[in-house]
Specification:
This is PLP-dependent aminotransferase family protein. This protein is α/β, with parallel strands linked by helices. The protein is 41% helix and 13% strand. The chain has 17 helices and 15 strands. Strand 8, helix 11 (292-305) and strand 9 form a beta-alpha-beta unit. Helix 1 (18-31) crosses helix 4 (92-100) and helix 15 (397-424) runs parallel beside helix 17 (491-506). The relative contact order is 0.14.
């Protein structure tokens, strides 16, 4: 049985009864069907380490959950979600577990009035063209030191992955036409994974396998919008999404992402845009996140004004400073807005870029039209790859890899911060949060961001200027910025490469 990922298990660790809070958090997951029946929980030692709490507390909670019928204990094997929940699980006392934390009580928030800037299609189109042209010199080697968006390719268990591929390579049943929605075992495995790790609430029939996140974004936009409809998007933001918006001849409205404080939710609420595209877990490239209160505001906005949200849960697996917030998709169901949110996931950063496999979780009523759109588009991940990935997830290797990489990337991030502080001597500020596979730098005066990128390229270092992610409507910044990826650089090279970059910055 696929192991349970406790990635977004959240509770009030400052409560006078930590044991009660943990019991409520786990039982809520089980009652809400977010943890698959029969799913294996982490060992008491592992969960205690992940949550930074006493192992005795975890043992007591597990034993209490077993006693009340939520978990099963198997000697020599561990703890599992009960296949049959106790009969009293739907009593008011148990259902109140869902409501006891009060996270979905509507907030009375003060709206701030701010101006908006709307960009027509032509300006976006030219912006994309200019960005592509102006930065061709920076993308000649997409995988070398500090190239953003590339995971640690050497750390991937390639031998084990090859065995999974070989297991299905000779299956003649996979050689013919396959289900348009994707491999059913893979859809089920992903459904169980996002339910346990991100509190996503969906059925297996809502999941569509895609050839990467970009195809998922295209399907979502094409299924609900028509030309000239307005899309709200983070600025600076994901360049590839801008290209899709331009290709579909949609209008574009920039929503600023401020340094450290993140997306201007107040401007979203004031807009008449039909759809919001957002990366709430780790905004790229600014490295901010949307907190729980803001997430509730957004799903309430979508519900009350009949708008749409595409949640691109980029980098949600790699949070180093705090537990991940629940997904917008999961929150939307709890406030009756589940038909307004698409959820996009990609395995490129978790596994490797060349996999080219993503998934789209679609509101139930839109599954037929999204499948029709996918049918009209080209591109599908090979069937044997999908089957191999299903095994990789179900047999636990996927989650083991994520946990290993979370530890590795946390260490790399710490070394990046230490090296930047040492070699730049306080002249450059890291403005991104402790998450994901990149850091974003900010500085005033001195070398420009494009000049620094050019100098770095000559030394075999790839970094991205912040302007690469901005739209034409952006007001002129008074500071410079750059994005450095640390996923695919060896730990032992971080200090020397940052030292080289600092010398280039000072020249």
């Amino acid at each position: 049985m696929q192991p349970i990922d406790t990635g977004d298990l959240a509770f009030d660790r400052h409560s006078s009864s930590l044991q009660k809070q943990l019991f409520n958090a786990i039982s809520k997951k089980i009652v809400s069907n977010l943890w698959a029946k029969g799913g294996k929980l982490p060992s008491t030692r592992k969960l205690a380490s992940e949550l930074s709490i006493s192992r005795n507390t975890v043992i007591s909670v597990y034993e209490q959950l077993v006693a009340e019928g939520f978990l099963e204990s198997r000697v020599g094997s561990g703890f599992y979600v009960a296949v049959e929940l106790p009969s009293f699980v739907f009593d008011n006392d148990i259902v109140s577990i869902r409501q006891s934390e009060g996270v979905l009580s509507r907030q009375n928030l003060n709206d701030r009035k701010n101006s908006q800037s709307i960009e027509p299609y032509n300006s976006i189109d030219s912006s994309i063209h200019n960005n592509t042209h102006n930065h061709e010199h920076v993308i000649d080697d997409l995988n070398r030191s500090f190239a953003p968006g590339v995971p640690d390719l050497k750390a991937f268990p390639m031998v084990k992955w090859s065995r999974f591929l070989q297991r299905h390579a000779s299956r003649t049943s996979l050689l013919g036409s396959q289900d348009l929605q994707g491999d059913k075992r893979l859809c089920q495995a992903l459904c169980d994974y996002v339910s346990s790790s991100r509190s996503v609430s969906c059925s297996v029939d809502q999941i569509i396998i895609t050839s990467g996140a970009q195809q998922a974004l295209s399907i979502a936009l094409m299924s609900i919008l028509k030309p000239e409809d307005k899309v709200l998007m983070e600025n600076p933001g994901y360049v590839q999404m801008k290209k899709v918006i331009a290709l579909l001849k949609l209008q574009f409205e920039s929503i600023p992402v401020e340094v450290k404080t993140g997306l201007r939710v107040d401007q979203v609420k004031q807009s008449d845009g039909k759809l919001l595209y957002v990366t709430p877990s780790n905004q790229y490239p600014m490295g901010t996140s949307i907190n729980l209160e803001q997430r509730i505001e957004l799903v309430q906005w979508a519900k009350e004004h009949e708008r749409w949200i595409i949640e691109d849960d980029y980098d949600s697996e790699f949070q180093f400073a705090h537990r991940p917030y629940p997904s917008l998709q999961g929150l939307s169901k709890q406030v009756g807005a589940e038909e307004r949110v698409f959820y996009v996931g990609s395995l490129s950063k978790v596994m490797f870029n060349g996999l080219r496999l993503g998934y789209l979780i679609v509101p139930k009523s839109l599954v037929p039209i999204c499948l029709a759109v996918k049918d009209a588009l080209s591109g599908d991940t090979p069937s044997h790859v999908q089957a191999a990935l299903a095994d990789f997830i179900v047999e636990g290797d996927f989650l083991r890899h994520i946990r290993k990489m979370r530890r590795l990337y946390k260490k790399k991030h710490e070394m990046m911060i230490a090296a930047i502080e040492q070699h730049f001597a306080g002249e450059v500020e890291v403005i991104s949060q402790a998450a994901g596979l990149h850091v974003t730098l900010k500085w005033s005066g001195g070398v420009s961001e494009t000049e620094l990128c050019d100098r770095a390229k000559e030394q075999g270092i790839t970094i991205r200027p912040l302007s690469m992610y901005e739209s034409n409507a952006t007001k002129q910044r008074t500071w410079s910025g750059a994005v450095l990826g640390f996923g695919n650089i060896a730990i032992e090279e971080i200090d020397s490469r940052i030292s080289t970059l600092a010398q280039l910055w000072q020249t």
